[in-house]
Design a protein that fits this description.
Elements lengths: L7 E6 L8 E4 L12 E5 L9 E10 L2 E13 L1 E3 L33 E4 L4 E11 L13 E11 L11 E5 L4 E4 L7 E6 L4 E6 L15 E8 L1 E8 L3 E4 L1 E3 L11 E4 L2 E3 L11 E3 L6 E2 L6 E3 L6 E7 L9 E5 L2 E3 L2 E3 L11 E3 L2 E10 L2 E7 L7 H10 E5 L7 E11 L2 E2 L3 E7 L6 E10 L2 E9 L4 E9 L6 E7 L7 E7 L5 E10 L4 E3 L3 E4 L7 E4 L7 E5 L4 E6 L5 E6 L3 E4 L5 E8 L4 E8 L1
Parallel strand pairs: 2-9
Antiparallel strand pairs: 1-20, 1-33, 3-4, 4-5, 5-8, 6-7, 7-16, 8-15, 9-14, 9-17, 10-13, 10-15, 11-14, 11-18, 12-13, 19-22, 21-30, 23-29, 23-31, 24-26, 24-30, 25-27, 27-28, 28-29, 31-32, 31-33, 34-35, 35-38, 36-37, 36-39, 39-40, 39-41, 42-43, 43-46, 44-45, 44-47, 47-48
Length: 596
């Protein structure tokens, strides 16, 4: 039987949109939700489901003003209600007065919704979307999204009102680290909610604290970067309940809080967001999703590993499958599972994992965990490296498949790494693989094809800047429908090497392959970071990379960034462990740094 062939383009995305967003470093500045800057755009008071409220000039970074759209997503089991003795011209959607019955120390800059819950309790959910100042459209009720870096959010007054089961809670996710009092007197406890994929911070007391900013009922979370933010607030019992969100560093703690960092994953070393583009061009071929370079950053063992996708994206779940390479059993999972599907245990490198399917709304998820035991960091990395995608359907339905990876550590979920698999139409010639690798001082360019119909030859092209190309040589086509493998040797690699193929048909039509990029590690003056270990001052020297970022390994916070113009100086680094990310437009290199 002659199969129809297809191509799959696998590429990373960092959000639901692939449109590049402007990035602004807030650097822990306060983001203010002032009543004077509030306009109800959809609805009259912000209290209805779907209401949208615009806050202008919430923060200014350099010359750029930032606005924020607040959407009321849900409200169950209660109503927006003002505190007793509230001043005139205040509203419960965002209470702006500094005082009211049962509380003090509120600030107008806080986002402060106030409620009265029913006997069995209730909850509300809000979404915050940061946009470039002045870009809000009254037609679409949207604006130009921006990414804010180094943002702190305090959630105050997670206590109770004195009534039975009135323990309040706030739930949110995606943060880099959290701080709250875990010592004697602290009233915060945490749990992970698998239904909405958020960490729930709840009060273990029903007693009301009059001071809004009391340490014992306060949570502070840190976001390395954020574009939109969702929070659910509520309580388990009836009566008044007030919530106060302070988008800023907040006041000093009276007692040092515990800092708990969420785990992080990188499917490509040194980068938690972007994944390089790669191609597959045939059915029944497994594509590794992490290219054996995944990395897990965690201070302790892992509870579970998550693999998720949009349920509607899978066109033929019986043919489209997740494959775990090198497993001795349970190594292939069809992606048309339901909540009732029984998936056999996975045995991977001598360790047995349970696999639980979850289908909720538009999302399908596979959860991998060990019964009665944790997953080590090394086991997590091995598992991520082993994940692959395959389809056995050689005439598939075209369309995008969106995959997400994450890991859970206790009550805290890691960042989510997202990827798109885009199934394309059938091609007359399928390039199964194209890569370049160093081999004994030279570069070996290799590629394989199938279904070569009317193909004349291949030109091997090279560039030193990715724009200007020269032909290195020509390789004749086998011109067969079977799998063919080719190679070409470049004996004179330079510092930066770009390669691509010109496939030339017999009628003269030229088709270009993807581009492979290699940095010559033996090239003189590629890069260096010295001295390492350092006394707090380092020199970055490179003719390859043009920018750098320095991150504290323990906190994940970027402490320095700049341009490399052959050389860059970084000073005043405090004692600790760091990693330096050097990058150009095509690639990155990560160096660990010790400051003694």
């Amino acid at each position: 039987m002659k199969f129809k062939l297809f191509a799959i383009l696998l590429m990373a995305i960092t959000s639901a949109s692939v449109t590049a967003q402007n990035v602004y470093n807030v650097n822990a500045k306060t983001i203010s939700f002032l009543a004077a800057n509030k306009t109800h755009k959809v609805g009259t008071n912000g209290q209805g489901i779907g209401n949208k409220t615009l806050y202008t000039n919430v923060v200014k970074v350099g010359t750029q003003n930032i606005d924020c759209i607040v959407t009321t997503l849900s409200l169950t089991g209660g109503t927006f209600t003002l505190p007793a003795n509230a001043p005139n011209n205040t509203i419960p959607f965002d209470y702006s007065s500094t005082t009211g019955t049962g509380m003090t120390s509120n600030e107008d800059s806080f986002f402060a919704p106030t409620f009265n819950w029913n006997n069995t309790g209730g909850s509300a959910k809000f979404r915050f979307e940061f946009i470039a100042g002045g870009t809000y459209s009254n037609v679409s009720n949207t604006g130009t999204p921006v990414v804010l870096k180094n943002v702190y959010i305090n959630t105050y007054d997670i206590d109770g009102n004195g009534g039975s089961n009135s323990n309040q809670f706030a739930a949110f996710g995606g943060f880099t680290s959290s701080q709250y009092q875990t010592t004697t007197g602290g009233f915060i406890q945490t749990a992970y909610n698998v239904t909405d994929n958020k960490t729930t911070f709840s009060s273990n007391t029903t007693t009301n604290s009059q001071s809004v900013v009391d340490d014992k009922t306060r949570i502070r979370v840190y976001y390395a970067s954020i574009s939109s933010f969702e929070i659910s607030v509520g309580a388990g019992g009836s009566g008044a309940a007030y919530y106060f969100l302070d988008f800023g560093f907040g006041p000093a703690w009276t007692a040092t809080p515990t800092v708990i960092s969420a785990p992080k994953i990188e499917l490509y070393n040194g980068d938690t967001a972007f994944i390089a583009t790669t191609n597959i061009s045939n059915c029944n071929i497994i594509k590794e999703l992490a290219l054996n370079t995944s990395n897990t950053i965690s201070s302790t063992t892992i509870d579970s590993i998550y693999f998720s996708f949009n349920t509607s994206d899978i066109k033929d779940g019986a043919s489209e499958r997740l494959v775990i390479d090198s497993s001795s059993s349970g190594d292939t999972i069809r992606l048309n599972f339901t909540n009732s599907t029984i998936i056999p245990n996975l045995v991977f490198k001598g360790v047995t994992y349970r696999v639980i399917p979850r289908v909720s709304g538009s999302a399908s998820t596979l959860v991998f965990f060990r019964t009665g035991a944790k997953v080590t960091v090394a086991q997590t990395e091995s598992m991520l490296n082993a994940f692959g995608y395959i389809t056995t359907d050689c005439s598939p339905n075209a369309g995008v498949r969106a995959f997400t990876f994450s890991i859970l550590q206790g009550s805290f979920m890691s960042n989510k790494v997202k990827m798109n698999a885009n199934v394309l139409a059938a091609l007359p010639l399928t390039l199964l693989d194209f890569k370049a690798e160093f081999n004994n001082g030279a570069v070996l360019v290799k590629w394989s094809t199938v279904q070569e119909e009317a193909t004349s030859h291949f030109n091997v092209m090279k560039s030193e800047d990715g724009m200007n190309w020269n032909k290195l040589g020509t390789v004749a086509s086998n011109n067969t429908t079977n799998v063919s493998e080719y190679s070409f040797i470049d004996e004179f690699p330079v510092a930066k090497n770009y390669y691509r193929l010109q496939q030339v048909d017999m009628n003269g039509t030229i088709t270009l392959s993807k581009i492979c990029f290699l940095v010559n590690n033996t090239a003189e003056n590629e890069f260096s970071v010295y001295p390492n270990p350092s006394n707090g001052q380092v020199t970055i020297n490179s003719s390859i990379f043009n920018s750098y970022q320095v991150y504290n390994i323990q906190t994940g916070i970027m402490v320095s960034e700049g341009v490399i113009d052959q050389i860059a100086m970084v000073s005043e680094l405090s004692k600790g462990l760091y990693f330096v990310v050097m990058s150009n437009e095509q690639t990155k290199e990560v160096v660990r740094l010790i400051v003694q």
